[in-house]
Amino acid sequence: MDASKPRLCRLIYFSSVSSHLQESDLDDILAESIKRNERDGITGLLAYDQFNFMQVLEGEEEAVNRLYLGITADPRHQDVRLIQYEQIDHRQFDDWAMALAKLPEVPGNYINKLYGGFKPQLFSTRDALIYFNFLRNYLKRAA
Ligand SMILES: Cc1cc2nc3c(=O)[nH]c(=O)nc-3n(C[C@H](O)[C@H](O)[C@H](O)COP(=O)(O)O)c2cc1C
């Protein structure tokens, strides 16, 4: 490892959507995320259905940790729970500063069949990662 380079990490969490979250809040979250993540060198994906968020964030450890602390305090969602925190050599999700996958607009795949839908509280770390890979490929094809 190059000691002069800040270390990269990947962080995945899920949360419960706040009951007073409106459709327009989603646009706000995405717009501010893109702007700030570009500034901070963070990339990732945000999955949303009417009940849950699940997000993957990749970037330098300090920036990702700082952002995660802010996210946990954001009143637009609650019960934020960490699924994965891992130091990485290379990013897997570097196509977007942030992109939003609205479910169930994204069609089902084997994870949906396995879990009976988008249920991040049941996802193993491995399946969360598989799911984000599926979403990334879907969004790239749809673009
Ligand atoms: C589900 C969810 C995902 C978010 N993702 C990001 C993100 O990727 N980047 C970001 O800058 N803010 C994101 N935010 C917004 C942050 O929680 C926070 O409002 C923003 O970073 C400004 O924080 P500050 O006012 O403490 O500086 C997200 C909020 C929610 C509810």
UniProtKB/TrEMBL annotation:
Residues 8-99 form the BLUF domain. Pfam families: BLUF. SUPFAM superfamilies: Acylphosphatase/BLUF domain-like. SMART domains: BLUF. Gene3D superfamilies: 3.30.70.100. InterPro entries: Acylphosphatase-like_dom_sf, BLUF_domain. It comes from the Bacteria. One of its GO terms (molecular function) is blue light photoreceptor activity. This is BLUF domain-containing protein. It comes from Marinobacter manganoxydans MnI7-9. The lineage of its organism: Bacteria, Pseudomonadati, Pseudomonadota, Gammaproteobacteria, Pseudomonadales.
